[in-house]
Design goal:
This is D-methionine-binding lipoprotein MetQ. The protein has 192 residues and is α+β, with helices and mostly antiparallel strands. The chain is built from 7 helices and 11 strands. The protein has 2 domains: 72 residues, 3-Layer(aba) Sandwich (D-Maltodextrin-Binding Protein, domain 2); 104 residues, Periplasmic binding protein-like II (D-Maltodextrin-Binding Protein, domain 2), CATH 3.40.190.10.
């Protein structure tokens, strides 16, 4: 199948007793920092508010993105399980406003910035390329972790048919299609 990232796959295997494995890493849907009342990250000021999703996975990705952009620093090792309690440095005393993910785009007029995952950004009529002030790069910890994969039964990952499918999904024509169709909301994963 082709709808999940590795943490989902691992959880599914654990809960269902299955043995699905990754046959190929194809794309990721980047988180972005989008403007709220401020239109440039250079304008960040002491006490600004930034809205982030409050669920475990999405909050960690949001915090990692804020860290990657020098807004906060997380404790070593916090990684993809980071919470606001893991913020070690916050030089501008930013207030992190934790909201249910669907609510984040609704507060753009109340906070300096919002951090959104791809589907909510699209619903709010944002595009990564045109509107994001910053977004997850393909070499970020989050992109490497949450890349969407081709998952197959263990033992099938090296079958010729699966290899052919992965090759097609990684082909230049599919990369071009993804880039044109999704305009940055879906990004081809170039890592291993």
């Amino acid at each position: 199948n082709y709808f999940q990232h590795v943490p989902y796959l691992e959880q599914f295997n654990e809960e269902k007793g299955t043995h699905l494995v990754v046959a190929g890493k194809i794309h990721y849907e980047p988180f972005g920092i989008y403007p709220g009342t401020k239109k440039d990250l250079k304008d960040i000021a002491k006490g600004d508010k930034i809205a982030v999703p409050n669920d475990t996975t999405n909050e960690a990705r949001a915090l990692l993105l804020l860290q990657d952009n020098g807004i906060i620093k997380l404790k070593d090792g916090a990684g993809i399980k980071a919470t606001v309690n893991d913020i070690e440095e916050n030089p501008n005393n930013i207030e992190i406003v934790e909201l249910e993910a669907a609510q984040v785009p609704r507060v753009v007029n109340e906070v300096a910035y919002v951090v959104l995952n791809g589907n909510y950004a699209l619903e709010a009529n944002y595009t990564v390329k045109k509107d994001a002030l910053a977004y997850e790069k393909s070499d970020s910890e989050a992109a490497k972790t949450y890349v969407n994969v081709i998952a197959v039964k263990e033992g099938n990952e090296n079958s010729e048919k699966i290899k052919a499918l992965v090759d097609v999904l990684k082909s230049d024509s599919i990369k071009k299609f993804i880039n044109e169709k999704y305009d940055g909301a879906v990004i081809v994963y170039d890592g291993e």
